[in-house]
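pinging the channel bc i need a second pair of eyes. not urgent but kinda urgent?? the chain im working w is below, pasted from the shared doc
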Amino acid sequence: MRIDSKTTVVGVIGYPVAHSLSPQMHNAAIQSLGINWCYLPFQVAPEDLAKAIQGMRGLGIRGLNVTVPHKQAVVRLLDWVSPEASAVRAVNTISNEGGRLEGYNTDVEGILAALRLGVGLEKLPEKVVVLGAGGAARGIVYALTTVTDVRNIVILNRTVQKAERLAAEMENMAKGKTRIKGRKLETETARVELREAGLLINATPVGMYPNVNCSPIEVSSVFHPRLTLVDTIYNPKETKLMRLARSQGAKCFNGLDMLVYQGAKSLEIWTQRRAPVKVMKEAVMELAPQPSALGQF
């Protein structure tokens, strides 16, 4: 990879961001495409977000991926957002079009591609439980409402008011096609809601490196063999939540495939070229060689 005065810069912002595999994945894709670009990680604290976005304009950074905790806060700092990003009020990809900052949410496309191509769920279960009510959860719940197989979504969150607000908003957006409710994330509630669920998606950062001994659900008995768990975390490659669910016979997948699919869509937005998905997947699998499904930048 050559770096010179003509090198186009793209990257990822988050807090923390040291865990991200996006630089390795995107730089492998960039090398495969043979373009004079480079992809860098930028650790940006919440209080510095506005300055970072203004810096993107000033420095001419071509594109940024956006991860925890900035996906919702960044929306108000942009000039335009796509229909999907507007619907979920969360952005994970910014494209700098000559100083005009445009926001997209490739989580929506990434989650569905990962579920079908990564997990192998050609038909999604009727009931899905989602953990979390932040930016990642918003994209996931919205994506699920576009799938006719899914009729019932339950959002579990530590702060029940956030879960209820998100559920009401998304149910209204679904126009009666999907029943969505929000409940408090606690052991007994999870046990009841998971009993008839076929799919559980963790959309929280709980358990992400370096807090690898944490889990949004701490009791293994709430899981069952008919359940598929997908965790939006990919570092570590096996979370505590995955270990607990697997101990009860559940099928478990980590976050690498969604990282690949949503990242590929971001690269296509920036370059207007078809992303080398195979190269991107090989790059992340080399760093974390384990069957996978979903993920965050």
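so The longest strand covers residues 8-14. and The chain has two domains: 8-105+258-287, 108-256. — does that match what u expected or am i reading it wrong
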